[in-house]
Amino acid sequence: MTTVSTRLPEDRYGRSSDERADRTLKIVGSALGAVLLALVGWFAYHYVGQNEISGQVITFEASQDTVKAHLEVRKDADATGYCTLRSQAADGTEVGRADFRFGGHATEIDKVVTLRTTAPGTTAELLGCHAD
């Protein structure tokens, strides 16, 4: 007894339509993957590489209605921008927030800034620095 094959001879009829569809899907998938990879790379470059100003709080001293914070800011030579600083009370409520501007030709700035608060603050948190 012999078994009957339902497969067509490839030499006689060429490639099946399923193989053509698979090849088309592979090409389209590869192209979309390359576009997605390029888009993620572009966003990463602009997020990391284009940040012209960065800073950190070195120390702070809180009093009844102010918080004095020593900020260290690093920036490009001609960049101007601001850093946002906030203070919170012991229970976590925000008691002060302000933007401090930085400009000039210096690339590193050490400055003590005074943040006015509505109640005694227990923290000095740098929320971020942004270029103009």
UniProtKB/TrEMBL annotation:
Highest taxon above the source species: Bacteria
InterPro entries according to UniProt: DUF4307 (IPR025443)
Record's protein name: DUF4307 domain-containing protein
Transmembrane segments: 25-45
Keywords, comma-separated and alphabetical: Membrane, Transmembrane, Transmembrane helix
